[in-house]
């Protein structure tokens, strides 16, 4: 049984969404940040960074959502949600995965850290305009890279679309404008997938239990 440590509407959503896409059974372990559970001795044994997601499977623990998504898709999707290793398609998958995590997400996390995540004495309000500018720059590059394709790799949904769409939604939730029509159409299409709704419902149910 795969054990997912998470909290609703965080990077852990990426893992739950992927597992729902593949129809894989899993145990959801809520890490309640409001109660300080991310810094509890029990959870720090799972992930010393005190962050979600973390996943226990096959006798070991994985952290870092991008790495988890790629590993799970490789292991369980039978090639349906991730291209074969060594192919040009796999190279494009890796390229856009890293872009989602390092270019698109990075300025959003900077915004989050300096608005609420860091202790107040370490927050730097002057960093916010730069982070917002960086996000807009990344959006432009993403829009150009997507072009008129349905999904990041063409006409087929893959696991990289989970990483990209969830990060775009994060930006919108952070009140950052997304004005590119192709990105808005892409986001609407990816978010309409039933597995995403199942993931959100599962997270909400676990949080309210």
Automatic annotation (TrEMBL):
Pfam families per the UniProt record, alphabetical: GST_C (PF00043), GST_N (PF02798)
Matches recorded under SUPFAM superfamilies: GST C-terminal domain-like (SSF47616), Thioredoxin-like (SSF52833)
Start and end residues of each GST N-terminal domain: 1-80
InterPro entries: Glutathione-S-Trfase_C-like, Glutathione-S-Trfase_C_sf, Glutathione_S-Trfase, Glutathione_S-Trfase_N, GST_C, Thioredoxin-like_sf
Protein origin, superkingdom: Bacteria
Residue ranges of every copy of the GST C-terminal domain listed in the record: 86-209
Similarity-based family: Belongs to the GST superfamily.
Identification of the protein by name: Glutathione S-transferase family protein
């Amino acid at each position: 049984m795969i054990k997912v440590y998470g909290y609703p509407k965080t990077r852990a959503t990426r893992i739950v969404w992927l597992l729902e896409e593949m129809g894989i059974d899993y145990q959801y372990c809520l890490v309640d940040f409001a109660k300080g559970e991310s810094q509890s001795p029990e959870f720090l044994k799972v992930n010393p960074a005190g962050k979600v997601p973390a996943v226990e499977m096959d006798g070991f623990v994985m952290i870092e959502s991008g790495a988890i998504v790629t590993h799970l898709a490789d292991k369980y999707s039978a090639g349906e949600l991730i291209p074969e290793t060594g192919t040009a398609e796999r190279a494009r998958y890796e390229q856009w995965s890293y872009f989602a995590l390092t270019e698109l997400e990075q300025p959003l996390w900077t915004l989050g850290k300096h608005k609420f995540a860091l202790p107040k004495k370490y927050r730097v309000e002057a960093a916010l305009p730069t982070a917002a500018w960086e996000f807009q720059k990344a959006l432009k590059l993403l829009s150009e890279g997507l072009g008129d394709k349905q999904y990041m790799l063409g006409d087929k949904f893959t696991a990289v679309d989970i990483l990209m769409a969830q990060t775009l939604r994060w930006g919108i939730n952070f009140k950052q404008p997304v004005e590119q029509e192709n990105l808005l159409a892409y986001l609407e299409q990816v978010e309409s997938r039933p597995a995403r709704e199942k993931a959100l419902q599962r997270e909400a149910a676990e949080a309210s239990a």
